[in-house]
Write the structure tokens for this entry.
Amino acid sequence: MEETRKSEVILQTLLAFIYLYLFLTGIKLLGVSLKGLGKGFAESLIQTTANPLVGLFIGIVSTAIIQSSSATTSLVVGFVASGMLPLSHAIPIIMGANIGTTITNILVSLAHLRWKEEFKRAFSGAIVHDIFNFLTVIVIFPLQIKFHILTRVSYYLTVSFQHLGGFTFTSPLKVAVAPAVKFFLFLVRSHFVLGIILAFVLVITSLIFLVKIIRRVSGKKLELLLDRYLFVNPLVIGLLGFAVTAFIQSSSVATSLVVPLIGAGLLNVEKIFPYTLGANVGTTLTAILASLVTGDFTSIQVAFSHLAFNILGILVWYPMRKVPIGLAYKLGEVVGRKRWVALVYILGIFFFLPGLIILFFRR
């Protein structure tokens, strides 16, 4: 009997890792497909900005399209280094990219759509990330326009770190999922629309089975592990978010990993809020290290402006964390009652509203 139980646990653990791998592959495939479909469009958007407000919303929509704030930041750094984009226009795009990258974990929460309470929890946990970024923009954007606060802070940071040099780091996660992503792209013959559809199927299917296994195997044990060792206090939680994001080089993947745990009731919004803040800081590390390698002052300043934005946001909103956490819970309650609101939110916040602002102010 004991042997059978051990075999069952081993099998379920193995299946959990397989589903986790497929989940991460699906997220990466979604990013690659969207990037292939919309990178040219994003590049043309970024190049044509001349208004800081337009730049902010271009950062949102371009990052939502290509599913990577790192990719948007890299494009911006390249344009700044080549002289095609002034620093004053680049910084609002970076701020918008911080918002746009949060669409991934909101999409992941849709896997819980069939279960009202689960979806309410998962959506609240997913949305606290972009609420924090929106609130930070509300505070920092006017200060940047009026006093150039990010320009000044990033300048001093650049002066301090310019001559340290840097190094490149390849994420083990990217290496691990690359063969599977290439295989699926081969199956769809690199048709990116089919790639997007396949990615959604992979993410949702693997997530549903992963949550079932988590419930079946762990029970209170996983909850105890999370409470005692990982999500112990805000500092440890924030460092965990930073470390996970720096390791896998993707804040959207790092935050998406905890969405199923929130949906299953193993974590709550209060617990994962410091985690998302740490992830926000962690996602800037790769660009900073890469820019330090180039030695180009303006490129380094762009990367540090991203870090400055996140640090200032934490200093402002962590002491008032009840505001973003409360808003996340309220929106979760709304979509729990009317689940179609989630789709309206995604399309409206990440595409329609930015599209209207860009069209209106670019005239």
User: Anything to note?
Assistant: The mean pLDDT is 82. The chain is about 85% helix and 0% strand. The two ends are 73 Å apart (CA to CA). Residues 2-361 form one domain.
